[in-house]
Structure formats: structure tokens, C-alpha cells
Amino acid sequence: MAADADAVRAARIAKRKAREAKKSSIPAMRYTSPASRDTPDPMATLQFKSVKITSIKECLHWPLQVFGIVAARDILDNKRNIIFHRPRNSCQTITEEDPYLALTGPSRAIAVSIDPSYIEVSLKVKGTTKAEDKDLSDLVVTYRSGYCLTGVYPSRLSTLKFEFSHVSITVEATICIKLTGGSWPIGFQSVFTAGTSTDDVLVKLLDSGHDGLPVDANGVTKLSRRVVSVGLEKFLKVYLMAISINEKQVVESSEATFKPERAGISLINLSLGFCSMEVAVAWSCFCDE
């Protein structure tokens, strides 16, 4: 009987963990073309800009091979909205000179309300074997309207710093950048960022390193991140830069400025001297279901 009870308990725990691990099923651009029955509205959102490892315990040494997950769970569906995710066989190398996680999300805007929502962190440092892996950070941070997040969180063997902003009355902006003419020259790094008219810290959409401009067969840029939140009374600015890999200097740059809309798609064409690019922004509001 005891064995049966243990088996039932283990099955319940497994089901709960599987449920908690589910990714958000709500896509970006959900209400870019709202149906007549939809009643989406702007909402307050949490704009994630960076996650930095500010310090590590003495038992660890730079560089670190980091894997794991950072995700947000908001009131829209309480499922994981992935901000960073690396499996053990695809670690990110974190150095003391560049201690930032390479963020790939959120996949949609992160809603904020009076009800509590959560930021979930589970990061590990890869060891020679799985048995030698170490817990870098393991924490859950609660956020809600009117509650000020500190941004600095010690846990396990490190201290993390979140760079974020709480944005009121926002719409979701999903960015697409396409090469429409010319070509990206060899030896130039592409760095694309986005921010609002009042932001000091920009959201990094792409930093190609030595890879030039990563595009698909249709010329669409493979952005690392593409979703940002924008206050309806602000402006969204998208910056494109071509940086000489050898000289580390900005050679060409251009920017597009958008007035946020509640729905629809906005287009702006830019020139960077050696190529032309189209910046498209799909706007969407929210439904709290």
C-alpha cells in the first residue's frame, strides 16, 4: 500500500512539473488584425532588457559554461514565456568582460497587473560530467502593479542583475527587418537595437558578432529578439548599425521612428549606404482571459 501511495504521489508531482514547464501558448501579434468579436486593450507590461551575472562565489571561475532557463509567467496564461533558454549541450560561454546572457525572448509581451506574476530562473554551470554541474542561480521573483523590483538578486553561487522597466499603457511591437537591396559587406558586424523615445537602455535585437548579417532565403533577418513593449504615448525607435569587425567602429547606421498603433503593421524603408532594408512593426493589444 505504501508503495502504491508513493507511486501516486510521484505521478502527481511529475504531472505538476510537466504542467509548470509548458511554454506560453499565446503568440506575438495575436491582435494585429483583430476580429470584430475581439476587444483587446493596452496593458501595463514588463520590458526585459538584459540579465547580467554581476558576481560569482569563489568556488567558480571565469569563464562559465552556462545553461538553463529564465522565463516569465504572467496573468495571460501562467505559462513560461521564455527569455533565455540553453540546454546543457549548447551552453553560453559567459566571461567576466561580457557577463550578459544572450536573451532570445520574450516570445510575446509580458503583462503586468494587480495580480502577482513571476520571473523564474534556473541556471547551471556545466561541469566535466553532469554530476559535477553546479547550480548558478535558482530563484522565483514576484512582480505586480505597484510593486518595485530591485533588479539585483543573489542566489546559489551568483548574483544576477535584471535590467527592465515597467511600462504603462503599452502595446506589443513585433519587429521584422528585411534586406531589400544591395548586400551586407564581408567584415562588418550587424547590431540592431530598439527602444522608446525615453529609454536609456536599448533592447538588443541582434548582435551578429563575426557572422555578418544572418538572413533567410527571403532576405529576412534572423533576429535574436523581436518583441518589445511600447507606451502608446511614446515613439518606438529601431537602430541599425554596421560595425567594422577589425576596427570596432560604426561605419554605417540608420534609424526608423514609429508612432505606436493599437493594431496593424507599420513599414519604413532605410538605407545603409551599401544596402537597403525594410523595417516592419506589427502592433497588438492584449486580452486578459
Blueprint (SSEs and pairs):
Elements: H1 2-20, E1 43-56, E2 64-73, E3 81-86, E4 92-94, E5 110-112, E6 117-125, E7 134-143, E8 152-155, E9 158-182, E10 188-196, E11 203-207, E12 227-231, E13 236-244, E14 250-258, E15 264-271, E16 275-284
Antiparallel strand pairs: 1-5, 1-9, 2-3, 2-4, 2-6, 6-7, 8-9, 9-12, 9-16, 10-11, 10-13, 13-14, 15-16
General description of the model:
- The protein is mainly beta and 289 residues long.
- It has a domain at 168-284: Sandwich (Immunoglobulin-like), CATH 2.60.40.150.
- Helix content is 7%, strand content 48%.
- It has one helix spanning 2-20; strands at residues 43-56, 64-73, 81-86, 92-94, 110-112, 117-125, 134-143, 152-155, 158-182, 188-196, 203-207, 227-231, 236-244, 250-258, 264-271, 275-284.
- The strands form three sheets. Strands 1, 5, 8, 9, 12, 15 and 16 form a seven-stranded antiparallel β-sheet that branches.
- The longest helix is centred in the first third of the chain and has 19 residues, at 2-20.
- The chain starts with a helix and ends in a 5-residue tail after the last strand.
- Mean pLDDT is 90; it is low at 10-19.
In terms of quaternary structure, the protein is single chain
Query: What's the helix count?
Result: 1
User: What Rg do the Cα atoms give?
Assistant: 21 Å
Task: Look up the CATH topology of the domain at 168-284.
Answer: Immunoglobulin-like
**How many runs of DSSP E, i.e. beta strands?**
16
Strand count, sense and barrel status of the largest sheet are: 7 strands, antiparallel
CATH superfamily of the domain at 168-284: C2 domain
CATH architecture level-2 label of the domain at 168-284: Sandwich
The percentage helix is under 10%
